[in-house]
């Protein structure tokens, strides 16, 4: 059993890394990396105590800088998904009228859009916000 301890560390690491896909928070992956590092230590012949130390040092040692980096990026207003489009420009592909949806193309994608004014195809717009599954736009000045 002891000769396969490195394999158990590797399996635990892979499970934790894949668990990150399901679990929120971007935390579990660092413990998966720590488990893989402990597996390498076990493979190289380190004792149980050293394997556990390697696990915690690598896990916490990678978790803290990653969280600090993400917190800094959060303060800078990092937007992901459709929110990244806010403030960008797009070109109207189907007319937009007040109270009716049209379409715009931005970043190579077609989006449903609404506006408080009439906007004709071919005109450029600025994306103001994401509302549900559509973009709210205004004519580009």
Q: Could you explain the architecture of this structure?
A:
There is one protein chain. The chain is built from three helices and five strands, in the order αααβββββ. The protein has 141 residues and is of the alpha+beta class. The chain has two domains: 2-75, no CATH class; 81-139, OB fold (Dihydrolipoamide Acetyltransferase, E2P), CATH 2.40.50.140. The radius of gyration is 25 Å and the shape is rod-shaped. The mean pLDDT is 89.
Fold blueprint:
Blueprint: H1 5-22, H2 28-43, H3 48-75, E1 89-94, E2 102-106, E3 109-114, E4 124-131, E5 134-139
Helix pairs in contact: 1-2, 2-3
Kindly state the number of beta strands: 5
Report the portion of residues in β strands: 15-25%
Please state the overall shape, judged from the principal axes of the Cα atoms: rod-shaped
The helix/strand class is: alpha+beta
């Amino acid at each position: 059993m002891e000769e396969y301890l490195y394999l158990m560390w590797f399996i635990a690491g892979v499970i934790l890394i894949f668990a990150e896909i399901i679990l929120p928070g971007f935390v579990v992956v660092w413990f998966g990396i720590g488990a893989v590092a402990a597996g390498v230590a076990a493979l190289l012949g380190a004792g149980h105590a050293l394997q556990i130390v390697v696990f915690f040092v690598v896990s916490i040692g990678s978790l803290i800088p990653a969280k600090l980096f993400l917190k800094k990026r959060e303060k800078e207003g990092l937007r992901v998904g459709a929110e990244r489009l806010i403030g960008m420009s797009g070109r109207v592909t189907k007319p937009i009228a007040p109270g009716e949806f049209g379409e715009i193309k931005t970043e190579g994608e077609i989006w449903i859009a609404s506006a408080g004014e009439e906007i004709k195809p071919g005109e450029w717009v600025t994306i103001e916000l994401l509302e549900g599954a559509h973009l709210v736009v205004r004519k580009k000045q």
